[in-house]
Design goal:
CATH topology: Rossmann fold
Strand content: 25-35%
Number of helices: 5
Shape: globular
Structural class: alpha/beta
CATH class: Alpha Beta
Largest sheet: 9 strands, mixed
Oligomer: single chain
Distance between the termini: 14 Å
Radius of gyration: 16 Å
Helix content: 25-40%
Order of helices and strands: EEEHEHEHEHEEEEEEEH
CATH architecture: 3-Layer(aba) Sandwich
Length: 199
């Protein structure tokens, strides 16, 4: 099975005085259904550096989570970890797939920008592009400017970019959460499968 590095969100548990890395368990079932095994990454760049020097991986999954620090988020270490994962994958020629916050991290890494997105939190809307589908939406920020090497592969009816792909490298991102669907979308699974070069 291919080994995939998986980023995690940061959760503050005030009742315990703890700051935790967290990952939706549904990601493991989704990846397993594609013949992939996920390895959660701590939001600790020095430790990540040791991990990637010890084990060879086959790709990177950047999952959803908190707002990037540059837009008011409070998890700078998550930002640094996402950047380190992208740099590692590019250096090794590995595929990257970003979901929601993960797609935002890709955009920011290559010089894009984000803006507020009224009406995109806890709703559903249709996207058009590689295929047409009704998808969930949990994000408060949307792409504002796309870097030169990034192209849109999904948009909403009002033109909001909901999916991206790098023109030269195996890097893809979407703004919805396929793992949160009660029944996994075969089209989403196929997109992830292709993004990780499984077909």
């Amino acid at each position: 099975m291919k080994k995939i590095l998986v980023s995690q969100r940061v959760d503050m548990i005030s009742s315990y005085g703890e700051r935790r890395d967290a990952l939706d368990q549904r990601w493991f079932s989704l990846l397993d259904s594609l013949g992939l095994i996920g390895f959660p990454v701590p939001n600790n760049p020095p430790v990540l550096s040791k991990i990637i020097k010890t084990v060879d991986f086959d790709g990177v999954l950047l999952t959803g989570g908190e707002t990037p620090a540059i837009y008011g988020g409070k998890a700078l270490d998550r930002d640094e970890t996402d950047r380190a994962l992208i740099t590692y994958a590019i250096g090794k020629g590995l595929p990257i797939f970003g979901v929601c916050r993960g797609m935002q991290s890709i955009l920011l890494y290559f010089g894009g920008s984000l803006k507020e997105a009224p009406g995109h939190i806890r709703t559903m809307h249709r996207v058009f592009g590689l295929y047409s589908s009704v998808v969930n939406s949990f994000h408060s920020l949307i792409p504002h400017t796309l870097p030169m090497d990034i192209t849109a592969i999904f948009k909403t009816e009002d033109g909001t970019v909901e999916g991206i792909r790098h023109r030269l490298m195996p890097i893809t991102g979407i703004m919805w959460h396929p793992e949160r669907e009660p029944v996994l979308s075969e089209r989403d699974l196929q997109l992830i499968r292709k993004s990780f070069l499984l077909e």
